Amino acid sequence: MSEEKHLITEQHRYLPDPDMAQSTWVGDYEAAYAAYRADPEGFWEKIAHELHWHREWDRVLEWEHPHARWFTGAKTNITYNCLDRHVFGSRRNKVALIWKGEGDEDERIFTYRHLYIAVNKFANGLKKLGIHKGDRVCIYMPMVPEQIIAMLACARIGAVHTVVFGGFGSAALNARIVGAGAKVVVTADYAVRRGKSIPLKHLIEEAIINAPSVEHVVVLRRQTEQPIEIHREMEVDFYELMEGVDRRCPCEEMDAEDPLFILYTSGTTGTPKGIVHTCGGYMVGAYYTTKHVFDIKDNDVYWCTADPGWITGHTYVVYGPLMLGTTVLVAETLPDYPTPGNYWSILEEYGVNIFYTAPTAIRMFMKMGEQWPNEYDLSYLRVLGSVGEPLNPEAWEWFHTVVGKKRLPIVDTWWQTETGMHMITTTIGSPMKPGFAGRPLPGVAADVVNGNGESLPPGTAGFLAIREPWPAMMRGVFGNDEIYSKYWTTIGNLYKAGDLAIKDEEGYIMVIGRADDLIIVSGHNIGTAEVESALVSHQSVAEAAVIGKPDPLKGNLIKAFVTLRVGHQPSERLKNELTYHVRITLGPIAMPSEIEFTDSLPKTRSGKIMRRVLKARELGMDPGDLSSLDE
Ligand code: WTA
């Protein structure tokens, strides 16, 4: 590994280790990108040909700004590519999933055949409950194999899954169930965290009180010795549902443009947006990026630490790696429990080759110290990855030196729930620059632009935007085409990512943060307004404004400014009560770390709270243009 100072931009630049240079793209990123530019549709068509289709497309792309249709006329089912291809090909008995729990003995292994049978049976079970193509199914589960089985079973019969991260509370869950109009909710009795069982099911009971679309709740009972009670009028046990059904459930032949899933992400308005992805284009994008960005080989063990409740889990725990026939590790564990060496011990034990995690985890590893990874044999590792937030150069260097032994490539992948797939990264074999995610992947026309969509010169900060449609782009925001259209109409006719970025002379892109009001806490998107609404729902609160404050560990922490209703006095006790209130309504990830009571909040003349003014005051920065501030 050689290291050199880049003269023009004065940043660190690492050349790839020649021994590692066995990737598909080594040395020819430029050629691949040029091939894409020369014939964008041909580029994607070639990739699509590597997958199974029940019927091929008439046209690769129909683009009527801002609506795209990819692989029109084609029929497919993503689970055919995730399961049948392997089971009726050469990977029938290959390990598909390794599940690891907190205890030493907590391990479950599924071959592709096991997974295939479980998915087929659960799919038939869903049919028994009256679920048909197009119906929505909400999955609210801990990170257990059944979570993945439920997702794939939905996809198999054409039901649209909407997975809700198990850390959300009942109000957030209710909003998502109602928003999607889910007919069935799949859940579990409890999740496990730090040796404790965290009951989940009562949250479902609360969440469905005002959710008239829900007809059935399927409950996975992990506790078998004293199983929780099933209320038969509405509920059914996960495994009982799989009894007495056929072991085969033929794939529903889905139109390429039929919806595959809805995944809620918090927007600037605070109302969660149901991002809609489709069967054909998402499949091609997930497959292509998983294959090339991680350079997965057939013998690899692959571990992405994300929960399938986030987009990273959808694309890079479930669909992408399974399409490639990969052995996927899923761990329902934390980096620091039972010891700060937990992740390293798992990497050693399973001989993990590809390790994909988040900056917040990397910062936690740094904090706990390098003696922990140094205790374990990490020599199986070949590729390291990061996603979710900017990976600060300090954390990059640490990951590269301590875990990668200055040898391994790091793929810092920039993308979004809306993009469905990786968009920007440093492909294996290209020089790496800490702090920069990298260049747009071949197939992706990303750029840094001004407000009119004009390309900005290197070194100038601007909006991160995508100039042209790509197959895995979201097709809509469920039930709200206006919000969808805004993504493509705010900056000229480009896709606006909502992030600010800077490009360097070589086209490497550094993402510097969100341009809007999302706060990214420990890699999770939290909408300011969602937290504010939760606070305001407390009887003592009149108004609340929430900002993100940079935090070395979590990326950001949440600070809330709260004005109280008459008759209520600020107190430490009330702070605790409010924090607890957010925990109960939205879940622990959305809890404010700081609460400040204030008499008033800065607002625009039209009455909108100006969070950037609060943020500037808090951080001692220039608040910028104050002409709209109402004094
Ligand atoms: C941020 C997660 C810098 C970014 C896949 C984006 C990143 C938002 C990176 C999307 C990265 C994600 N470098 N920032 N490598 N990856 N982001 O929808 O602000 O949960 O817009 O998707 O996370 O978050 P989402």
Task: From the structure above, extract its key features.
631 residues, alpha/beta, Rossmann fold, 3 domains, 36 strands, 29% helix, 26% strand, globular, disordered N terminus, binds 5'-O-[(S)-ethoxy(hydroxy)phosphoryl]adenosine
Please outline the helices and strands.
Elements: E1 3-5, E2 12-14, H1 29-38, H2 40-48, E3 59-64, E4 67-72, E5 75-76, H3 78-87, E6 95-100, E7 107-111, H4 112-128, E8 136-140, H5 145-157, E9 160-163, H6 170-180, E10 184-188, E11 190-193, E12 196-199, H7 201-207, E13 216-220, E14 235-237, H8 238-241, E15 254-255, E16 259-266, E17 272-278, H9 279-294, E18 301-304, H10 311-323, E19 327-331, H11 342-350, E20 354-357, H12 359-368, H13 371-374, E21 383-387, H14 393-403, E22 410-413, E23 424-425, E24 439-440, E25 446-449, E26 462-466, E27 476-477, H15 481-489, E28 495-503, E29 509-514, E30 518-521, E31 524-527, H16 528-536, E32 541-551, E33 555-564, H17 572-586, E34 594-597, E35 603-604, H18 611-619, E36 629-630
Parallel strand pairs: 6-19, 8-9, 8-10, 10-13, 13-14, 18-19, 18-20, 20-21, 21-22, 33-34
Antiparallel strand pairs: 1-2, 3-4, 5-15, 6-7, 11-12, 16-17, 17-27, 23-24, 25-26, 26-28, 28-29, 30-31, 32-33, 35-36
Helix pairs in contact: 1-2, 3-4, 3-10, 4-5, 6-7, 9-10, 12-14, 16-17
Bound molecules: 5'-O-[(S)-ethoxy(hydroxy)phosphoryl]adenosine.
Written description of the protein model:
By secondary structure, this protein is of the alpha/beta class. It has three domains: 18-77 and 261-513, ANL, N-terminal domain (Rossmann fold, 3-Layer(aba) Sandwich); 110-252, Rossmann fold, CATH 3.40.50; 522-619, GMP Synthetase, Chain A, domain 3 (2-Layer Sandwich), CATH 3.30.300. Helices cover 29% and strands 26% of the residues. The protein has 18 helices and 36 strands. The strands form twelve sheets. The chain has a seven-stranded mixed sheet with strand order 7-6-19-18-20-21-22, sandwiched between helices. A five-stranded parallel sheet has the order 9-8-10-13-14, sandwiched between helices. Strand 33 (555-564), helix 17 (572-586) and strand 34 form a beta-alpha-beta unit. The radius of gyration is 24 Å and the shape is globular. The N and C termini lie far apart (58 Å). Mean pLDDT is 91; it is low at 1-10. The protein binds 5'-O-[(S)-ethoxy(hydroxy)phosphoryl]adenosine.
